[in-house]
């Protein structure tokens, strides 16, 4: 029998303690990546039918979301938005009712600016009217894009999305409209991440999910679909600290019928999104999905991980840039853990993951059992053991759920501490620390104790110490070895009030979301 472990939980930035509108990530369909503007009513009704017959609906995929291009080219004379009657001859309210009668929820798309990305009417200046129009149509989910916002500053986006938030929150009988915000995507991918993080600071307060980076490759797009998946995965990894029940980072759609992907790559995409607790919104021709793809998408073990009530996002236990291997882990409700091993390299690899890298104690009284989430097979992990992954193919992801015996000590948040701008890892070097390329070294995997000390697995008797020049001293539990982690990514020292910095000095005056001071830490570290 398991004893539930007391884990430090990420504190919510919301003051509202009631059940959030979206306690777990949304699951469903959106037509954009697959069909772009070729959408119509038939596509949606046919997709709904296929989602029932394939078992996708029963597995939890209950949303069908329209993307851009559903609108007529102009508003009605009374300024109300309306649909293209060629594409939607029966109208959107009819479609919403059809879907509702089959147990699905309809989602819609609008734009915060003057025009949508596809050139249809924007909602700027019409926010209240459009919100009440969508409510009256029976729409339950709004993706608000951010094309043609003028001027394109962080302040303007904050104002527009904040306006939508206040309108949606005020709609009687309380908002039931899930609000997906595309704002951060308009600030991603520059050399200076500060504005991107400033947008990330408010999106969790205004809505339930945010598209934070570039669109995943569309079906007809030029380029590598796998590279696109890895690109969006890499952005998501930078933002784990923001995620909590009620708010989810959105690395964009699943594209499981993309002809540029192998089955192995599709499975990696699905497993990574599940361990990160990402939205599972499929953009594909559902009636044409292969049986093996349907089996993947309906895998109950991975869906349970995605929908886990803790709402955590898995973080990097280790990253080996040369080998191309990422190991991700997080806690699940009930004291279990999930671990995923991704092979980004071009050849088959063998990977061994010591349990201490997963935050577990390698001690004689602690037994860890692993369930392979692809096939449900159970693997015994011996005490002081390792998860041994043989023959992990190029671009494959292995994924396991770990069950801990009652003799196991509470989980200690463990993993890399990395600068989210440079990607470099905090690395122990004797009595010093430096920032180096992440190479899955024990000197780069840190335990973060409940008291806020950080110690490398290579030498757990030493702790990160805010001394001049920064150092690694014998752990004493003094104030200069206590650090607090903020949602801004700052790691601040209790004694000096200074922040960890990648630069000439290891600590310096705290700055708000400057590239040199925004760090990714293991999931489970409490935020101040
Ligand atoms: C609806 O859209 C689908 C997918 O793009 C297309 O195959 C079909 O011909 C369209 N139907 C109509 C009536 O336009
Ligand atoms: C799919 O979504 C795109 C993007 O929003 C839209 O332009 C297109 O019309 C949609 N197609 C269908 C068939 O729904
Ligand atoms: C409606 O969509 C059809 C098919 O894509 C297009 O030919 C037509 O111009 C659109 N009409 C309006 C009013 O936007
Ligand atoms: C706007 O006009 C349409 C079409 O006549 C009507 O259905 C709708 O109720 C009107 N909306 C408002 C807010 O008056
Ligand atoms: C966009 O709309 C705003 C009002 O919401 C207006 O002030 C601005 O001039 C418009 N910009 C363009 C390029 O049309
Ligand atoms: C709606 O909000 C009001 C005021 O915040 C609250 O008293 C009420 O319980 C809420 N109703 C539901 C159904 O959540
Ligand atoms: C980064 O952007 C922020 C916000 O726009 C700005 O205040 C800061 O000076 C920029 N930093 C650098 C190094 O350019
Ligand atoms: C795998 O091969 C691709 C294409 O040749 C190359 O761009 C990439 O760097 C390789 N990846 C690794 C981890 O070696
Ligand atoms: C092993 O775990 C038990 C249970 O938490 C703990 O009391 C004990 O101190 C641990 N032993 C070692 C060597 O870590």
UniProtKB/TrEMBL annotation:
Subcellular location as annotated: Secreted
Kindly report the protein's main subcellular placement as a broad class. secreted
Q: Which GO terms describe its molecular function?
A: alpha-galactosidase activity; carbohydrate binding
Q: What is its EC number?
A: 3.2.1.22
**Domain (Ricin B lectin) ranges:** 412-522
Q: Which residues form the signal peptide?
A: 1-17
Catalytic activities = Hydrolysis of terminal, non-reducing alpha-D-galactose residues in alpha-D-galactosides, including galactose oligosaccharides, galactomannans and galactolipids
An example of a Pfam family matching this protein is: Ricin_B_lectin
Record GO cellular component, one term? extracellular region
Q: Which domain of life is it from?
A: Eukaryota
Provide the alphabetized UniProt keywords: Disulfide bond, Glycoprotein, Glycosidase, Hydrolase, Lectin, Secreted, Signal
Read off the InterPro entries from this record. Aldolase_TIM, GH, Glyco_hydro_27, Glyco_hydro_b, Melibiase_C, Ricin_B-like_lectins, Ricin_B_lectin
Function according to Swiss-Prot or TrEMBL: Hydrolyzes a variety of simple alpha-D-galactoside as well as more complex molecules such as oligosaccharides and polysaccharides.
Family listed: Belongs to the glycosyl hydrolase 27 family.
Name of the protein this chain belongs to:
Alpha-galactosidase
Look up and give the organism this protein is from. Aspergillus saccharolyticus JOP 1030-1
Q: What is the lineage of its organism?
A: Eukaryota, Fungi, Dikarya, Ascomycota, Pezizomycotina
